[in-house]
Amino acid sequence: MKIGVLGTGSVGNALASGFVMAGHEVRMGARDAGNEKAKTWAAGSGRGGSSGSFADAAAFGEIVFNATAGTGSVEAVRAAGRDNLRGKILVDLSNPLDFSRGMPPTLFTTPPGDSLAERIQNEAPDAKVVKTLNTINASVMLDPGRAGGDSDLFIAGNDAAAKERIIAFLKEFGWKRVLDLGGLTAARGMEAYVLFWLFLFVAQKTPDFNIRVVKP
Ligand SMILES: NC(=O)c1ccc[n+]([C@@H]2O[C@H](COP(=O)([O-])OP(=O)(O)OC[C@H]3O[C@@H](n4cnc5c(N)ncnc54)[C@H](OP(=O)(O)O)[C@@H]3O)[C@@H](O)[C@H]2O)c1
């Protein structure tokens, strides 16, 4: 499958490399088509990897992943282009973190009635935005066993078929437990959780962890 990855950071690299290793073709996108990080990644990824602008990556992908800094995600999706995303699944794993006042960060969204995923859906109304993977570290995203044991991944989105397709896709990477939280408004909670994740990270002294929901 052809996959577009918007983002050249640790998440963009982890996903793009993992997808190529699984046999997919990946185009990594950045603000500038000549972005050095994206070019370096593509050069080292063999025939399965290429790079370009956000619009190039969005046009290339049958499925597109948004792995850009939360503060720039709406801008990145705008640059990706409404037409390039039309009818496609746009998997959003960004977090609305504001580091401008140091650590710990705050959210720049207001979770009771707002989320970054919903802002992204508004920016790309003809795409099927699916929120997932934002509650775990990049190292765990395509390697759930790294967190130790079976843990839970969460998913939300307004298109049921799009969520089913992404759940099936993530199963190929070892995710056995994917909890569907419903429509995209659930992203408000998934994104707010990341503040708690940061405190868990400090307490656990490793980013390689996850949570599991249990019930009787
Ligand atoms: N790091 C993790 O383990 C982790 C885990 C879960 C979720 N996330 C979320 O995943 C996303 C990516 O995280 P990351 O650590 O890999 O990278 P990052 O440093 O947060 O983001 C890098 C990407 O954001 C783009 N970007 C930055 N400012 C922008 C702007 N104003 N307009 C458009 N694009 C902009 C950069 O574009 P250029 O390439 O053009 O510079 C680059 O591609 C974030 O939203 C983060 O919260 C991260």
The whole-angstrom Rg is 16 Å
* Total DSSP E strands: 10
- Helical content class: 25-40%
Order of helices and strands: EHEHEHEHHEEEHEHEHEH
Structural class determined from secondary elements: alpha/beta
Strand order of the largest sheet: 3-2-1-4-5-8-9-10
* Global mean pLDDT: 97
What compounds sit in this structure? NADP nicotinamide-adenine-dinucleotide phosphate
Main pleated sheet: 8 strands, mixed
Unreliable residue stretches: none
| Terminal residue distance | 40 Å
From the spread of the alpha carbons, the general shape counts as globular
Written account of the structure:
The chain has 216 residues and is of the alpha/beta class. Helices cover 39% and strands 19% of the residues. The chain contains nine helices and ten strands. It has an eight-stranded mixed beta sheet, with helices on both faces. Strand 2, helix 2 and strand 3 form a beta-alpha-beta unit.
